[in-house]
Amino acid sequence: MAEPFQFELVSPERLLISEAVNEVIVPGTEGDFGVLKDHAPFMSTIRPGFITVKHTDGKVSKLYVIGGFADVNAKGLTVLAEAAKPLADISAEDVASKIRDTEEDYADAQDPVKRQAAADKLTDLRNLQEALANQ
């Protein structure tokens, strides 16, 4: 049985998780990786996808992250995410609606900066939609 270690997931809005957990699976840019207690020191950038957290009480939770960094050290794992949201708070219908709205914003944008912002948002939303479909 896995021994607990400290895990923190931080986004610009708030601290989402700060607790002892048994395992965390992170979507690294070079591929998914799992972290257990006493993992070798490691640092990675993360890609959009789901972080899977196996809690000490046996429950499993998933959170969608968009970019950031993961740092494994002697104290545990810290993930600094550009954005993060629990799976339970994400609706496929809501994502599809946001994609339609953002596609309209992209098509209507005359200013190159606004057009690029809409394109970036559209990429993030499509990544989320794909990740939801693969759950």
What can you tell me about this protein's structure?
- This protein has 135 residues and is of the alpha+beta class.
- It folds into 2 domains: 5-88, Sandwich (ATP Synthase, domain 1), CATH 2.60.15.10; 91-133.
- Helices cover 29% and strands 45% of the residues.
- The protein is built from 2 helices and 7 strands.
- The chain has helices at residues 92-108, 112-133, and strands spanning 5-10, 15-28, 31-35, 42-45, 49-55, 60-73, 76-86.
- It has a 5-stranded mixed beta barrel with strand order 1-2-5-6-7.
- The longest helix has 22 residues, at 112-133.
- The protein is elongated and about 55 Å long.
- It starts with a strand and ends with a helix.
- 21% of the residues are buried.
CATH architecture of the largest domain: Sandwich
Shape: elongated
Q: Radius of gyration over alpha carbons?
A: 17 Å
Classify the helix fraction into a percent range.
25-40%
What labels would you give this structure?
single chain; about 140 residues; alpha+beta; ATP Synthase, domain 1; 5-stranded mixed beta barrel; about 45% strand
Task: Please summarize what this structure is.
This protein is of the alpha+beta class.
Could you outline the blueprint of secondary structure elements for this entry?
Elements: E1 5-10, E2 15-28, E3 31-35, E4 42-45, E5 49-55, E6 60-73, E7 76-86, H1 92-108, H2 112-133
Parallel strand pairs: 1-7
Antiparallel strand pairs: 1-2, 2-3, 2-5, 4-6, 5-6, 6-7
Helix pairs in contact: 1-2
